[in-house]
Write a structure and sequence with these properties.
Length: about 400
Amino acid sequence: MTYPTTDGSNGHRQPSMAYDAGRDLGKIPLPLLADQPEQWVDFGKEGTGYYEAAAKILAAAEADGERTDLGVGDLSSWAFGPHPETGNASLATIPLPGRERHMIPLRAHGFSQLCSRVGAPPQYIAKLPGKLQMACVNHGMRAGEKSGTIRMANGEARALLSDRYAPLDDNLVLEVLEHTLSAAGMLGDVVVRSAAVGRTTALRLTIPSDRVVIGRDAKVGDIVECGLDLLNGEIGNRAVSITPITWILSCLNGMRRADREVSARLRHVGDPKRLEEAFRDAVPAALAASQGLRKRMEKAVDRMVDDLLEEFDGLRAFGLSAPETRDVARDVMAHRQIALPDSTDDWGSAMAEIRDVNVYEVMNGVTHVAQTRGTDRRLGMEETAAKYLYRRTA
C-alpha cells in the first residue's frame, strides 16, 4: 500500500491508496481472508473426556495462528485498502514520524465489523468494486475518533472491537468451567458429546449416569441424557453462555433451551474474574433446567399431531425457514420409510392418511436436520426445537 496524503476539510490527513498488480479496482471487490475454519465434531456414543475435548479446541486455535491484540487509539489515523503484495483488503496505519507501522490483512468477520463501526452495511460494501469500497470505508474512518482493539491471528485481523471489550477467550473459559465442575465434584461424571471450533466455540457436556429411556414402548425407546452447552465467541460474535440441553444417544441429536430464565449469558465486558462466580450459579441451574426439558420430551410422546402438513408449516412460526421446514418433513417421513413426492403440492394427499405421528417425532426431525447445518444455524435450530416442544406440550 502507498499512502499519499492531502489536507482534508475535516482537519484529518486523508489517505489514498494505489495498488497495481493486474487487478481492476474499478470492477472487482478487494478479496478478504477466510475466518478460522469451522468444524463440529461429534464424539459418538462413547463421548470423550473434558481434557481431551478442551485440548482439541485449543489446538484448533493454535493452528489458526498466534493470538495477539492491538489497541487502536484513533481509527481515523488508519487507512483501508489493498495489501501491496496480495491485494487483500487490509488496514494500515498512516505514516507518521516516530510511529510504528502496521499493515494488517482483514478476515471476513473483521471486515464486517469494520464496516459496521464506520456506519456502512457490510454485505453491501463487500460487493462493491475496490475503489468504491476504499472511498466508503476511508470516509467513515475519518469521521471522528473511534478507539478500539484489533484481535489478530497469524497477523490477520479476525475482529475489530470496541475499547470496552474484555477478552473472555476459550483458554480462560475452559479453565473456569473445569474448576467449576471440579469444585462441584462433577468433573469425573461428565462426558463431552460434541465440540465445535471456528467463529463460535461450543462444548456439549452430558451426565451419562442420569440417562433415562423416553417412551413406554419400543416405538420410541430413545436413551436421553441431560447436560449443558458451553458457548463462546472470541471475536465479538457471541457472549459466553451456559445453556441446558438434552442429548439422544441413538441419533446424537441435541436440543437446547436458550430462554433467558434458564440460560446464563455473560457479555465480553467488565472484569473477567466475574466468570467464576457466574459459572458457580449457572452450571447447576442449567443441569436442573435440562431435566425439565427432558420431562417435556416424555410428554411429547403422547401428544399426537392432527394435521401433519399444517404442523410442518407451523414450524416457521418458531424460526425455521420454508426450505428448513420441508427438510424436516422429509426427515420425519423418511424415518417412517415414506418418501414424499418431489412437488410439495402433492404432500397433502401423501400425508392425509398418516394419523399416528407425535410431537416428539417432529421435534426430533428438527434436531436431526440441524446436524446438516453449520455451527450457528445448528444451534439455532436446536433452540427452535425446544421452543416448539414447550409450546406443543404446554
